Amino acid sequence: MNKSYSQIALLGRRSSADHTPVPRLLSLPVLLCRLLCLIGASLSASAAWALWLGAHSHTIENLESLTRLSKVLSMSTAAHSLALADLDPTRESHHLSAALNADPRNLTALLRLSLYAEFAGDPTKAEALLDQATLYHHSYKSYMAALTQASRSNSRARSTHFATLALRYCPRDADGVYTQFLDLEQASQVLNSSGEAHQIDFLRFLLGQHRLADAQSFQASLTSSASLDRYRLELCDLLFWDGQHEAAATLFAKLHPEFAHTGTFNTQLRSRPTSLAFDWRITQHKSAQINWRPGELAVYLETIHAPLELLSIFVDARRHPHPRITPLWKGESQNLSWQLSTASPNWNRISLLAAPGPERRFQLLEVQIE
Question: What is d(CA 90, CA 198) in angstroms, rounded to the nearest whole number?
Fold first, then answer.
Protein backbone atom coordinates (compact mmCIF):
# COMPACT_ATOMS: atom_id res chain seq x y z
CA MET A 1 0.00 0.00 0.00
CA ASN A 2 2.83 2.42 0.92
CA LYS A 3 4.70 1.47 -2.21
CA SER A 4 1.75 2.39 -4.39
CA TYR A 5 1.49 5.78 -2.84
CA SER A 6 5.20 6.39 -3.35
CA GLN A 7 4.99 5.47 -6.98
CA ILE A 8 2.00 7.71 -7.47
CA ALA A 9 3.81 10.63 -5.79
CA LEU A 10 6.90 10.06 -7.94
CA LEU A 11 4.83 10.04 -11.09
CA GLY A 12 3.18 13.25 -9.98
CA ARG A 13 6.52 14.93 -9.46
CA ARG A 14 7.73 13.84 -12.89
CA SER A 15 4.59 15.14 -14.49
CA SER A 16 5.07 18.52 -12.82
CA ALA A 17 8.72 18.65 -13.89
CA ASP A 18 7.87 17.85 -17.49
CA HIS A 19 5.27 20.65 -17.72
CA THR A 20 6.56 23.83 -19.56
CA PRO A 21 4.81 27.17 -20.38
CA VAL A 22 3.62 27.92 -23.91
CA PRO A 23 6.61 29.44 -25.74
CA ARG A 24 4.52 31.96 -27.70
CA LEU A 25 3.09 33.60 -24.60
CA LEU A 26 6.55 34.18 -23.03
CA SER A 27 8.32 35.38 -26.25
CA LEU A 28 5.75 38.02 -27.24
CA PRO A 29 7.25 40.86 -25.10
CA VAL A 30 10.69 39.97 -26.38
CA LEU A 31 9.43 40.11 -29.94
CA LEU A 32 7.84 43.51 -29.32
CA CYS A 33 11.07 44.87 -27.83
CA ARG A 34 13.04 43.59 -30.77
CA LEU A 35 10.57 45.14 -33.17
CA LEU A 36 10.80 48.50 -31.45
CA CYS A 37 14.58 48.30 -31.49
CA LEU A 38 14.54 47.57 -35.20
CA ILE A 39 12.21 50.48 -35.86
CA GLY A 40 14.39 52.80 -33.74
CA ALA A 41 17.54 51.64 -35.46
CA SER A 42 15.91 52.15 -38.83
CA LEU A 43 14.82 55.67 -37.91
CA SER A 44 18.23 56.50 -36.48
CA ALA A 45 19.91 55.20 -39.60
CA SER A 46 17.53 57.23 -41.74
CA ALA A 47 18.18 60.35 -39.69
CA ALA A 48 21.93 59.82 -39.88
CA TRP A 49 21.64 59.29 -43.61
CA ALA A 50 19.62 62.48 -43.93
CA LEU A 51 22.23 64.42 -41.95
CA TRP A 52 25.03 63.01 -44.09
CA LEU A 53 23.19 63.90 -47.26
CA GLY A 54 22.55 67.39 -45.92
CA ALA A 55 26.26 67.91 -45.42
CA HIS A 56 27.15 66.60 -48.87
CA SER A 57 24.22 67.75 -51.03
CA HIS A 58 25.03 70.77 -53.16
CA THR A 59 22.18 70.87 -55.65
CA ILE A 60 18.69 72.29 -55.40
CA GLU A 61 17.10 68.95 -56.33
CA ASN A 62 18.99 67.02 -53.64
CA LEU A 63 18.20 69.58 -50.97
CA GLU A 64 14.50 69.64 -51.87
CA SER A 65 14.37 65.84 -51.66
CA LEU A 66 16.22 65.98 -48.40
CA THR A 67 13.75 68.53 -47.04
CA ARG A 68 10.86 66.19 -47.76
CA LEU A 69 12.69 63.29 -46.11
CA SER A 70 13.48 65.39 -43.05
CA LYS A 71 9.82 66.31 -42.66
CA VAL A 72 8.86 62.62 -42.75
CA LEU A 73 11.44 61.91 -40.07
CA SER A 74 10.26 64.94 -38.01
CA MET A 75 13.69 66.54 -38.36
CA SER A 76 14.35 70.28 -38.63
CA THR A 77 14.53 71.57 -42.19
CA ALA A 78 15.97 75.00 -41.33
CA ALA A 79 19.53 74.19 -42.41
CA HIS A 80 18.32 72.79 -45.76
CA SER A 81 16.19 75.90 -46.39
CA LEU A 82 19.16 78.19 -45.66
CA ALA A 83 21.30 76.20 -48.09
CA LEU A 84 18.54 76.49 -50.69
CA ALA A 85 18.47 80.27 -50.16
CA ASP A 86 22.14 80.37 -51.20
CA LEU A 87 21.65 78.11 -54.22
CA ASP A 88 18.34 79.58 -55.38
CA PRO A 89 18.60 83.38 -55.08
CA THR A 90 15.44 83.98 -57.13
CA ARG A 91 13.44 82.37 -54.28
CA GLU A 92 15.68 83.54 -51.47
CA SER A 93 12.85 85.13 -49.47
CA HIS A 94 10.74 81.97 -49.75
CA HIS A 95 13.53 79.71 -48.52
CA LEU A 96 14.44 82.06 -45.67
CA SER A 97 10.84 82.19 -44.55
CA ALA A 98 10.71 78.38 -44.67
CA ALA A 99 13.82 78.24 -42.50
CA LEU A 100 12.23 80.61 -40.00
CA ASN A 101 9.02 78.59 -39.95
CA ALA A 102 11.06 75.49 -39.19
CA ASP A 103 13.05 77.28 -36.48
CA PRO A 104 11.54 80.60 -35.27
CA ARG A 105 14.75 81.40 -33.36
CA ASN A 106 17.18 80.77 -36.20
CA LEU A 107 19.56 83.75 -36.08
CA THR A 108 20.79 83.46 -39.66
CA ALA A 109 17.26 83.39 -41.05
CA LEU A 110 16.20 86.35 -38.90
CA LEU A 111 19.18 88.50 -39.91
CA ARG A 112 18.94 87.72 -43.60
CA LEU A 113 15.18 88.24 -43.73
CA SER A 114 15.67 91.56 -41.97
CA LEU A 115 18.15 92.68 -44.61
CA TYR A 116 15.82 91.45 -47.33
CA ALA A 117 12.94 93.46 -45.85
CA GLU A 118 15.08 96.57 -45.36
CA PHE A 119 16.32 96.68 -48.94
CA ALA A 120 12.85 95.81 -50.20
CA GLY A 121 11.65 99.06 -48.60
CA ASP A 122 9.95 97.66 -45.50
CA PRO A 123 11.91 99.11 -42.52
CA THR A 124 9.14 98.27 -40.04
CA LYS A 125 9.39 94.56 -40.81
CA ALA A 126 13.18 94.76 -40.84
CA GLU A 127 13.22 96.25 -37.34
CA ALA A 128 10.69 93.72 -36.07
CA LEU A 129 12.83 90.82 -37.26
CA LEU A 130 15.93 92.30 -35.61
CA ASP A 131 14.01 92.84 -32.39
CA GLN A 132 13.07 89.17 -32.53
CA ALA A 133 16.72 88.23 -33.15
CA THR A 134 18.03 90.29 -30.22
CA LEU A 135 15.27 88.96 -27.97
CA TYR A 136 16.39 85.36 -28.56
CA HIS A 137 20.12 85.95 -29.03
CA HIS A 138 22.09 88.16 -26.65
CA SER A 139 25.30 88.26 -28.67
CA TYR A 140 27.70 90.63 -30.38
CA LYS A 141 26.53 89.37 -33.78
CA SER A 142 22.85 90.07 -33.18
CA TYR A 143 23.45 93.47 -31.58
CA MET A 144 25.86 94.54 -34.34
CA ALA A 145 23.30 93.61 -36.99
CA ALA A 146 20.69 95.73 -35.22
CA LEU A 147 23.19 98.57 -34.74
CA THR A 148 24.25 98.74 -38.39
CA GLN A 149 20.63 98.69 -39.51
CA ALA A 150 19.76 101.50 -37.08
CA SER A 151 22.73 103.54 -38.26
CA ARG A 152 21.73 103.10 -41.91
CA SER A 153 18.23 104.33 -41.12
CA ASN A 154 19.62 107.15 -38.95
CA SER A 155 17.53 105.98 -36.01
CA ARG A 156 19.37 107.63 -33.13
CA ALA A 157 17.49 105.99 -30.25
CA ARG A 158 17.87 102.46 -31.64
CA SER A 159 21.46 103.11 -32.67
CA THR A 160 22.41 104.31 -29.18
CA HIS A 161 20.62 101.38 -27.54
CA PHE A 162 22.25 98.69 -29.65
CA ALA A 163 25.67 100.36 -29.62
CA THR A 164 25.62 100.18 -25.82
CA LEU A 165 24.68 96.50 -25.92
CA ALA A 166 27.20 95.67 -28.66
CA LEU A 167 30.02 97.26 -26.63
CA ARG A 168 29.03 95.13 -23.65
CA TYR A 169 29.37 91.93 -25.68
CA CYS A 170 32.13 92.97 -28.07
CA PRO A 171 35.46 91.16 -28.39
CA ARG A 172 38.71 92.96 -27.69
CA ASP A 173 38.47 94.91 -30.95
CA ALA A 174 35.52 97.32 -30.70
CA ASP A 175 36.28 99.27 -33.89
CA GLY A 176 33.20 97.80 -35.57
CA VAL A 177 31.00 99.51 -32.99
CA TYR A 178 32.88 102.81 -33.23
CA THR A 179 32.40 103.02 -36.99
CA GLN A 180 28.61 102.98 -36.51
CA PHE A 181 28.38 106.02 -34.24
CA LEU A 182 26.28 108.67 -35.93
CA ASP A 183 28.34 111.54 -34.50
CA LEU A 184 30.65 112.48 -31.64
CA GLU A 185 27.75 113.41 -29.37
CA GLN A 186 26.34 109.91 -29.60
CA ALA A 187 29.80 108.40 -29.13
CA SER A 188 30.24 110.36 -25.90
CA GLN A 189 26.81 109.32 -24.67
CA VAL A 190 27.48 105.62 -25.24
CA LEU A 191 31.05 105.66 -23.98
CA ASN A 192 30.29 107.62 -20.83
CA SER A 193 28.30 104.64 -19.61
CA SER A 194 30.84 102.02 -20.69
CA GLY A 195 33.85 103.10 -18.64
CA GLU A 196 37.25 104.71 -19.15
CA ALA A 197 38.77 101.76 -21.00
CA HIS A 198 36.43 102.23 -23.95
CA GLN A 199 36.93 106.00 -23.88
CA ILE A 200 40.68 105.53 -24.18
CA ASP A 201 40.19 102.95 -26.90
CA PHE A 202 37.88 105.27 -28.86
CA LEU A 203 40.51 108.01 -28.77
CA ARG A 204 42.95 105.48 -30.23
CA PHE A 205 40.40 104.72 -32.94
CA LEU A 206 39.96 108.39 -33.83
CA LEU A 207 43.72 108.84 -34.17
CA GLY A 208 43.96 105.76 -36.36
CA GLN A 209 41.22 107.15 -38.59
CA HIS A 210 43.05 110.52 -38.68
CA ARG A 211 39.90 112.23 -37.40
CA LEU A 212 41.97 114.89 -35.68
CA ALA A 213 39.19 117.42 -35.06
CA ASP A 214 37.01 114.78 -33.43
CA ALA A 215 39.97 113.53 -31.41
CA GLN A 216 40.68 117.07 -30.14
CA SER A 217 37.08 117.58 -29.14
CA PHE A 218 36.66 114.15 -27.53
CA GLN A 219 39.85 114.21 -25.45
CA ALA A 220 38.97 117.61 -24.06
CA SER A 221 36.05 116.11 -22.13
CA LEU A 222 38.14 113.36 -20.53
CA THR A 223 40.18 113.33 -17.36
CA SER A 224 43.93 112.93 -17.21
CA SER A 225 45.58 109.52 -17.01
CA ALA A 226 48.81 107.98 -18.24
CA SER A 227 47.08 106.10 -21.06
CA LEU A 228 45.00 109.07 -22.18
CA ASP A 229 47.94 111.45 -22.05
CA ARG A 230 49.97 109.06 -24.20
CA TYR A 231 47.30 109.30 -26.90
CA ARG A 232 47.09 113.05 -26.41
CA LEU A 233 50.82 113.20 -27.11
CA GLU A 234 50.28 111.19 -30.30
CA LEU A 235 47.54 113.65 -31.22
CA CYS A 236 50.01 116.53 -30.75
CA ASP A 237 52.40 114.82 -33.12
CA LEU A 238 49.71 114.20 -35.75
CA LEU A 239 48.51 117.78 -35.51
CA PHE A 240 52.05 119.11 -35.96
CA TRP A 241 52.72 117.07 -39.09
CA ASP A 242 49.27 117.98 -40.38
CA GLY A 243 50.40 121.60 -40.34
CA GLN A 244 48.34 122.54 -37.28
CA HIS A 245 51.38 123.64 -35.31
CA GLU A 246 49.62 126.03 -32.93
CA ALA A 247 46.92 123.52 -32.05
CA ALA A 248 49.62 120.97 -31.38
CA ALA A 249 51.55 123.42 -29.19
CA THR A 250 48.44 124.41 -27.22
CA LEU A 251 47.62 120.79 -26.41
CA PHE A 252 51.24 120.00 -25.61
CA ALA A 253 51.37 122.94 -23.21
CA LYS A 254 48.36 121.52 -21.33
CA LEU A 255 50.27 118.29 -20.87
CA HIS A 256 53.50 120.13 -19.95
CA PRO A 257 52.78 123.65 -18.63
CA GLU A 258 56.47 124.62 -18.58
CA PHE A 259 56.48 124.40 -22.38
CA ALA A 260 54.06 127.33 -22.57
CA HIS A 261 56.56 129.56 -20.75
CA THR A 262 59.88 128.47 -22.24
CA GLY A 263 59.01 127.22 -25.72
CA THR A 264 61.27 124.21 -25.09
CA PHE A 265 60.85 120.87 -23.38
CA ASN A 266 62.95 118.26 -21.60
CA THR A 267 66.21 120.10 -22.09
CA GLN A 268 67.59 118.51 -18.90
CA LEU A 269 66.49 115.03 -20.04
CA ARG A 270 64.56 114.34 -16.85
CA SER A 271 61.91 112.29 -18.66
CA ARG A 272 62.39 109.56 -21.25
CA PRO A 273 62.29 111.08 -24.76
CA THR A 274 59.17 109.99 -26.66
CA SER A 275 60.13 111.07 -30.21
CA LEU A 276 56.71 112.75 -30.40
CA ALA A 277 55.57 116.36 -30.84
CA PHE A 278 57.92 118.80 -29.04
CA ASP A 279 59.94 116.19 -27.18
CA TRP A 280 63.33 114.87 -28.29
CA ARG A 281 63.22 112.65 -31.36
CA ILE A 282 65.77 109.86 -31.16
CA THR A 283 67.21 108.13 -34.22
CA GLN A 284 66.41 104.48 -34.85
CA HIS A 285 69.44 103.97 -37.09
CA LYS A 286 71.15 100.63 -36.53
CA SER A 287 74.57 102.28 -36.10
CA ALA A 288 73.47 104.21 -33.00
CA GLN A 289 72.52 102.86 -29.59
CA ILE A 290 71.00 105.54 -27.35
CA ASN A 291 69.88 104.71 -23.82
CA TRP A 292 68.13 107.07 -21.44
CA ARG A 293 68.67 107.37 -17.73
CA PRO A 294 67.15 110.23 -15.71
CA GLY A 295 69.19 113.29 -16.62
CA GLU A 296 71.33 111.55 -19.24
CA LEU A 297 71.44 110.06 -22.72
CA ALA A 298 74.19 107.46 -23.13
CA VAL A 299 75.20 107.23 -26.80
CA TYR A 300 77.27 104.58 -28.52
CA LEU A 301 77.95 105.19 -32.19
CA GLU A 302 79.56 102.67 -34.49
CA THR A 303 81.87 103.66 -37.32
CA ILE A 304 79.82 105.59 -39.89
CA HIS A 305 80.71 106.73 -43.40
CA ALA A 306 78.03 109.37 -43.86
CA PRO A 307 76.58 112.09 -41.59
CA LEU A 308 73.90 110.84 -39.19
CA GLU A 309 71.29 112.80 -37.26
CA LEU A 310 71.22 111.41 -33.72
CA LEU A 311 68.40 113.46 -32.20
CA SER A 312 66.35 116.61 -32.78
CA ILE A 313 63.76 118.82 -31.12
CA PHE A 314 61.31 121.59 -32.14
CA VAL A 315 61.50 124.92 -30.29
CA ASP A 316 59.40 128.08 -30.40
CA ALA A 317 61.10 130.49 -32.82
CA ARG A 318 59.23 133.46 -31.32
CA ARG A 319 60.98 132.92 -28.00
CA HIS A 320 64.24 131.67 -29.52
CA PRO A 321 64.65 133.34 -32.93
CA HIS A 322 68.43 132.89 -32.87
CA PRO A 323 68.99 130.23 -30.24
CA ARG A 324 72.36 129.69 -28.65
CA ILE A 325 72.87 125.98 -28.00
CA THR A 326 75.13 124.89 -25.16
CA PRO A 327 75.35 121.13 -24.56
CA LEU A 328 76.64 119.60 -21.38
CA TRP A 329 78.26 116.31 -22.25
CA LYS A 330 81.22 114.12 -21.58
CA GLY A 331 83.08 111.44 -23.49
CA GLU A 332 84.07 111.32 -27.14
CA SER A 333 82.06 114.26 -28.44
CA GLN A 334 84.38 115.11 -31.31
CA ASN A 335 82.90 115.51 -34.77
CA LEU A 336 79.47 116.30 -33.30
CA SER A 337 77.65 119.49 -34.29
CA TRP A 338 74.30 121.23 -33.77
CA GLN A 339 72.25 122.33 -36.76
CA LEU A 340 69.36 124.83 -36.82
CA SER A 341 66.63 124.66 -39.48
CA THR A 342 63.19 126.23 -39.97
CA ALA A 343 60.23 123.88 -39.61
CA SER A 344 57.58 126.61 -40.02
CA PRO A 345 57.42 130.38 -39.50
CA ASN A 346 57.07 129.95 -35.72
CA TRP A 347 59.05 126.79 -35.12
CA ASN A 348 62.71 125.88 -35.46
CA ARG A 349 64.26 122.45 -35.45
CA ILE A 350 67.52 121.83 -33.58
CA SER A 351 69.39 118.66 -34.58
CA LEU A 352 72.51 116.92 -33.32
CA LEU A 353 74.60 115.58 -36.22
CA ALA A 354 77.48 113.12 -36.11
CA ALA A 355 80.10 113.44 -38.82
CA PRO A 356 81.58 110.33 -40.49
CA GLY A 357 84.25 108.74 -38.36
CA PRO A 358 85.26 105.90 -36.05
CA GLU A 359 83.12 104.57 -33.25
CA ARG A 360 82.63 106.80 -30.23
CA ARG A 361 80.81 106.97 -26.90
CA PHE A 362 79.52 110.00 -25.03
CA GLN A 363 76.87 111.04 -22.49
CA LEU A 364 74.59 114.01 -23.11
CA LEU A 365 73.47 115.56 -19.78
CA GLU A 366 71.66 118.73 -20.81
CA VAL A 367 71.07 121.05 -23.75
CA GLN A 368 70.79 124.71 -22.80
CA ILE A 369 68.79 126.66 -25.40
CA GLU A 370 68.89 130.44 -24.92
Answer: 43
β-strand 288-293 against 308-316: which pairing, if any?
unpaired
CA distance 225 to 234: 14
Model's pTM, two decimal places? 0.77
DSSP at 276: S
Smallest CA-to-CA distance from 263 within 312, 314, 229 is with: 314
Q: Are strands 325-331 and 336-344 parallel, antiparallel or unpaired?
A: unpaired
Element (H, E) at 134: helix 123-136
List for the chain the helix, strand, coil content (%; round to 5).
55, 15, 25
C-alpha neighbours within 13 Å on the C-beta side of residue 334: 5
List of E strands, the chain: 281-282, 288-293, 296-301, 308-316, 325-331, 336-344, 347-354, 360-369
In this prediction, residue 10 carries a pLDDT of 45
- Separation of CA 253 from chain center: 34
User: How distant, in Å, are the alpha carbons of 12, 151, 239, 250, 304 from that of 247?
Assistant: 121, 32, 7, 5, 38
pLDDT of residue 107: 95
